[in-house]
């Protein structure tokens, strides 16, 4: 089983994934493995993220996530990830609209990215959309610009409706309440 969490940054996805995996050690859905953050690896390699991300860092994040998920699925029966390729598509589109200088490759880049996302999203058994209800925190990596988060979230919602309308929105609540809600849904 592959479960993916979708949403802009600082929405509680990683906290949820870690709490869910921990709760499942003794729960009825045991044996979940969490895919570690690819964005942090890209950042650690010296590439910018967020509003400073270029096409290479966005592409490495997308491809790295796909490889990490496939590798985890070869080793574990149940996998959960705090990001999906759809997130990358939304961040790419934000960058294309607001940050990157126009380039002849833009249309092809976005089309290939969207095609890849459409193919990969079919692999997920469950998709969870996390709306931005948690305050932004400065951890040195995530962007703290509320306008940026809002615009990325609008793009995430757009692509969820267009590509994976079956994704379920995670209700507001504590991480424990969210895990309990998901266990009931699962």
**Helical content class:** 40-55%
Q: Which fold name corresponds to the CATH topology? A: Rossmann fold
Strand content: 5-15%
How many structural domains does the protein architecture include? 1
The pLDDT mean sits at 91
Brief characterization of the structure:
It contains seven helices and five strands, in the order βαβααβααβαβα.
Features:
five-stranded parallel beta sheet, 7 helices, alpha/beta, single chain, globular, Rossmann fold
Structure notes:
It is a single chain. The mean pLDDT is 91. This protein is 53% helix and 10% strand. The chain has one domain (2-178): Rossmann fold (3-Layer(aba) Sandwich), CATH 3.40.50.300. The chain has 7 helices and 5 strands. The termini are close together. The protein is globular and about 50 Å long. By secondary structure, it is α/β, with parallel strands linked by helices. The protein has helices at 13-24, 38-44, 55-75, 85-98, 106-121, 146-163, 175-185; strands at 2-6, 32-35, 78-81, 126-129, 168-169. Helix 6 links the parallel strand 4 and strand 5. The chain has a 5-stranded parallel sheet, sandwiched between helices. The relative contact order is 0.22. Helix 3 packs antiparallel against helix 4 and helix 4 crosses helix 6 (146-163).
